[in-house]
Amino acid sequence: MSKVFTITEGLENLGALRTGGQGSVYKGRRMGPMLTAVKLLPTPIYAESEEDKNYLNFRNEVVKLRKVNEEPNPNVVKILSSGITESGSLPYIEMEYIDGPDLCDLLQQPNDKVFTLKEVIRLAYQLAGALAHCHKVGVKHGDIKSNNVKYNAGTGNYILIDFGLAVLTDEERRTSIRHAGAIEFMAPEQHDGLMLPQSDVYSYGIILYEMLTGNVPFPLTGNGETARNNVRLAHIESPVPDLRIARANAMPANWNNEKREQEMQVPHWLLAVINKCLQKRPENRYPSGVELYEDIVSNSFAADTKVNNAALLAENERLQTLVDKLEKSEAEKNKELTAFQNLTQQTAAYYDPQKGMYVRPKSLMLISRGTFTTVVIAALVFMALFSYSFFCKKSAPESIVPVYVKPADFMKPPFMGRAYNYDSVIKAQQAAILKKKAALKPKKAATVAPAKGKQEEKAKKKKRKKFLGIF
Ligand SMILES: Nc1ncnc2c1ncn2[C@@H]1O[C@H](COP(=O)(O)OP(=O)(O)O)[C@@H](O)[C@H]1O
Ligand SMILES: [Mg+2]
């Protein structure tokens, strides 16, 4: 046996657990202060006998608590000791101290009005585990409600407490008003004094509904007996108000649209579980916490796999569409590129790395087809007129009377009409001079005069004809 020695004051050494490569690990016992929760039952017990009803209740609670503690469960409160106080003879139960709020307080300010889906699922899983644990050892809780579940802020676990009602027999419960569970959480059959494992299952369903919507499905609206009766009746015969609508109406104002949308996606399996828990007839619910827990575990796993598969398939489909689209656009881009390359070849454009763009050589000018056609037609017309005026030199008739050609006529472009061309005028002038000379001869003088008049007439006509012929 290993040597036992003192480590430090207040820390008792209970012996080595294991010796490893870097030292030994010992079991220690801290002797310092330890926090516990002590529940005192209000009715004194004077005789520890079966005859004393209070003693019987107390003893039963302790027995049940010890039973559910035989095997530890992280979601069921641990009992440490129990007894009767030295002064006042009050029965007490000492439990582990759970540092944190009651579940119902988690829906109060400054917390959000409803739980997130993630937290509801965590709670659903842990609380179903606690119920399964109790029902397995034959303990029905009987008072499942949101202020009998504590949140351990240190571990983040939800812990089921208050096994006070678990101690009563059905007969005792029937006659005990004091011990009646919170009416808003009670299963329909509990109002007849009947408590079944399915009753816990029903109350569990109410808790989940409350966490998802911020309120129980049938809230108590007053303190009077009428209000209580209304709630009782609603549990017995009214359909449960639509959970999704109630959740949508209770969405916290500080949640943005994206979060609200996300938080409205209550998994179908969870809705189905709650629906089954809240059946009016106990036989339509899960027979006990065991089946409830199993269903939650298998459903959430299946849902996870389903979600994953569905998500993968959806992602795959999305990527495939993307690939198709990219391939299509790449083919189109290639086509465009080839066309562009052809165009650059045609226009002699080249890539200027300094400008970072394609440019045309400066020697080339880009003109529109219309302008080009106009220019070509104009050039052709010009050439035609030029040729006409160049090659079709008309000789003036010999009878022509020399005329004075205005300078403006010479300034006209070659294709524009002139009275006569230069050579023909010279020729006409020479001919006229010759005729004048001949006329000076007396013989011919008489005949020349009328001929001259005729020639002048003819020349005028020709001049007019030529002018009209050009235009
Ligand atoms: N183990 C515990 N640790 C811390 N607080 C506790 C513990 N047990 C009970 N409480 C607190 O005391 C309150 C009453 O305890 P409970 O067992 O529910 O008694 P009652 O029968 O009066 O409802 C609980 O709502 C909880 O806030
Ligand atoms: Mg309580």
Automatic annotation (TrEMBL):
What top-level branch of life does the organism fall under? Bacteria
Query: Which molecular function GO terms apply here?
Result: protein serine/threonine kinase activity
Keyword check for Cell inner membrane, yes or no.
Answer: no
Q: Where is this region: Disordered?
A: 449-471
Bilayer-spanning residue ranges? 370-391
**Where in this chain does the record put each Protein kinase domain?**
11-297
Record InterPro entries: Kinase-like_dom_sf (IPR011009), Prot_kinase_dom (IPR000719)
Amino acid composition bias (Basic residues), ranges on this chain: 460-471
* Pfam families tied to this protein: Pkinase
Q: Which UniProt keywords apply?
A: ATP-binding, Coiled coil, Kinase, Membrane, Nucleotide-binding, Serine/threonine-protein kinase, Transferase, Transmembrane, Transmembrane helix
Matching entries from CDD domains are given as: STKc_PknB_like
Question: Which segments does the entry list as coiled coil?
Answer: 309-346
| Keyword Coiled coil assigned | yes
Q: Fetch the PANTHER family from UniProt.
A: MITOGEN-ACTIVATED PROTEIN KINASE KINASE KINASE 20-RELATED, SERINE_THREONINE-PROTEIN KINASE NEKL-3
Protein's name according to its UniProt entry: Serine/threonine protein kinase
* Source species of the chain: Mucilaginibacter litoreus
